[in-house]
Design brief:
14 helices; 0% strand; Ferritin; mainly alpha
Amino acid sequence: MNKPDRNTALASLQTEVDAAFLYRKIAAAEDDKGIAAVFDNLADIEAEHAGHMLTHLRQQLPDLVLPQPSWRARTLNRIGKVLGYDYIIGVLMDTEKSIARAAVQQKEAQNQPARGDEGNHIKILQSLMTSRHKVSGENLSRIEGRHKSVGGNALRAAVLGANDGLVSNMSLVMGVAGATSGQSEVLLAGSAGLLAGALSMALGEWISVKSSQELYERQMALEMEEIMSNPEGELKEITLIYMAKGIPETQAHDMATKIMSDREHAHEVLVKEELGINPEELKSSAWEAAITSFVLFAIGAIIPLAPFFWGGGNTAILISVVASTVGLFLIGSAITLFTGKSIWFSGMRQVVFGLLAAAITFGIGKLIGVSIAG
C-alpha cells in the first residue's frame, strides 16, 4: 500500500470512528427509546466497519491502534450539547453521502462493479425503524424531517454569515485605505459597509423566511380546501402515495380510507407526503433569522475595521490585515466541521482568497488615490 492510499485509508478509519462516536452521543441524548435504538444501531455498524478497516490496515501497519474521536467529532459533540443534536444529524448525513461516493469511486478505480449497496447508510435509519424497531410513523416522520430540514444549515449559515461580513468589509476597508490612508475616511466607509451589509443580510433573511412561510401556509390552506371539496380525489391521492411506497393497492386503499376518516390527520399526511412540507419549518421566526444574520455579518465585518478606531496609516492597515488573516483562518477551520477536510487546507485556502480580494481592492484604491491626487 503506497503512502497516498495509506493516508486515505487512515482518514476513512477516522471517519468511521467519529461517526460511531457521534451516533452514540446522539442516542444518549435522545428521549425516545425507539429513535435512540436506531442511533445505537448506527453506532454499532460504524464501529464494526472501523474494526474491519483496522484489521486490514494492520497487515501493513502492525502497531496501529484504533484512533480516538477527532477534534472535529468532539467539537460537534460540544455543539450538540449546547444547540441540540438535531444540528449534528445533518452533518452526519452529509458524511454518509461522502463515504458512499468515495466507495463507488474506489471501486471504479479498481475496476470493481458497484453492488448498489454503497448508499445504504443514507437509508439505514428508515430501514432500521420500519423493519427492526417498529418505530411509530409519527417518529419516522419526525426523524425524516430532521434530515430534510437540518443538514447543519444553521451552523453553516453562522460561519458563512461571518465570512461574508469579514471578506466584504475587509475589501472595502482596504480599498478606502489604499486610496486615502486616512483614519476618518476608513472609519466612515467601513462603518457604512458594516451597517449596509448587515441590514441587507437581515432583510434578505427576513424576506426569505417570511415568504417561504406564507407560501407553505397558502399551499396547506389549499390542500384543506381540496379535502373538503373533493374527498374522493384526495382518497385516491393518498392511495397512490402509499402504492408508490410499495404497498399493495388493497392495503393502500384501506390505509387511505382510515386516514381520510380524520380530516385533520388526512391534511397532515397530504401536507407531508404530497407537498413535501415540514410543519416544523413554519415555527421558525423570521425576526430571529434576521437578527441572527445581522449579528453574524457584523461580527465578521468589525474585525478589519476595529484597528482604525485607535489609529490610522500603515500601522492600522497592518493590524487590520493580521486580524483579518486570523479571522479568515478561523472561519476556514470552522468550515472543516462540515467538510472534514484538513484544518490547514481549509484555513489557508480561506486566507488566500480573502487576502487576494483585499489586495485587489487595495491596489485599485491606490490607483484611484494617485489619480485624484494627480
